[in-house]
Each structure stands twice: as structure tokens, then as C-alpha cells.
Amino acid sequence: GNDSHITSLLYGGGAALVNSGGIPWTAAYIDTIGEPTADLRSNIAAEARAKIVYERLINVTDDPGIKDALGFLMSREIAHQMSFEKALHSIQPNFPQGKLPGDPEFNRTYFNMSQGEDVRGSWNEGQDWVYVEQPEPAVDGGDGMATVQLDAESAATAEAMKIRTMSNPEAQPMTGAELGKVNGDQPL
Fold it and tell me: Are the beta carbons of 181 and 187 closer than 8 angstroms?
């Protein structure tokens, strides 16, 4: 190796910082926020998502060779997830992420913001959870919903924008795809 003129002249005989397609390495390849426990949790979640994708791919093929290859790759995702979990649990304490504590008043407070029948479980009851059945109105005195109060001028501006951007469900405009056809159904 290292007999390429590119390797010897441009990189001084060292490894080129490029991927297999020759694209130069960039720091954009690094996916981190700089907090190891949060990064490990992100990696664990990514491996779990990848495993599910392999499962779905296995379910849509009948080819035994493809199923075998996908099964191997799926199994590697499991190995990666377990490795990341072991690394995460070797860091103690590892929750909450970061260094600063949360506000004790809200760390174990569950605000019931749902409409209709509520489901209770370990995420909102027991073990020191404070369950707030009907939270007070929002800090700004609003109803806690995605509503706003507009002054007359802002309301008029919003109404004008609504009218300007309103669609016409009855319209049958000529599309770019239709403009590119010859004889009604043949592409150019």
C-alpha cells in the first residue's frame, strides 16, 4: 500500500481523511452533544430503531439469503445496543444527564394536561409522584391551549393573510407534470 502518488504526495504517506467514496472527512460526521450519558442513550435508541427496520425488511422478503444477511445485521444492532447500555450503566450516576440538578418542585410532578379518561401508571403515580389533576391556568393567564388573543390590528393582519393564502378546493389547475406531456399522456 501507500504506493499511490496521491497518498505519497498529498498525504505524506499517511491515511487520507476521506470516506470510501473519496469525500473529505468533516466534523459534521460527529453526532454528539458532549455529554457521554446523553450520547449513549441516543446511540441506544438509534440501535433500537435500526433493529426494527431490519425486522421490517426481513418481513417483506422471501429470499432466504437476504433474510440471513438481514438477520445477521439485525443481530449486530442488538450487540451494539447491549454494548452501549453496558457502557451507560458503567457510568454512575448517569441520570439525570448533565451536572445541574432539576428543580425539586417539578422533578416528580405530573401535570394532567389530557382531555378525557386518564391513564395512570409508573410514569405519573406512586414513588413520590405529585399528580396535578387540574393544573392552574398558564403563566400568562391563558387557558393552557394553543390559543392567542390578538389586538384588532394583528387580527386584521391575520385575517388578510388567511384570505390571501386560502386554497380553492374546486380549482383544477394545470400542473407541471401535465405541461410536460405530449398528446395528453406521453412524456416529452
Answer: yes
Residue 22 sits in a domain whose CATH number is 1.20.1260.10
Closest CA to 58 of 43, 46, 73: 73
81's grid cell:
445496543
Global pTM? 0.56
Q: What is the 3-state secondary structure (H, E, C) of 80-116?
A: HHHHHHHHHHHCCCCCCCCCCCCCHHHHCEEECCCCC
Rounded to whole angstroms, the Cα distance separating 37 from 130 reads: 27
Per residue in 72-115, pLDDT tens? 999 999 999 999 999 999 998 888 888 888 888 888 899 888 87
- Same domain as 81, residue 15: yes
pLDDT at res. 188 = 43
- 23 and 83 co-located in one domain: yes
> Which structural domain range is residue 106 located in?
102-155
For 144, 179, 188, the CA distances from 173, given in Å and listed in that order, are 41, 11, 20
pLDDT, one tens digit per residue, over 155-184 is 999 999 999 988 887 888 777 667 666 565
Is it the case that residue 68 has pLDDT exceeding 80?
A: yes
At 76, the amino acid letter reads R
C-alpha cell of residue 35: 455529554
Alpha-carbon span 167 to 63, nearest angstrom: 47
Placement of cell 433500537 in the chain: 48
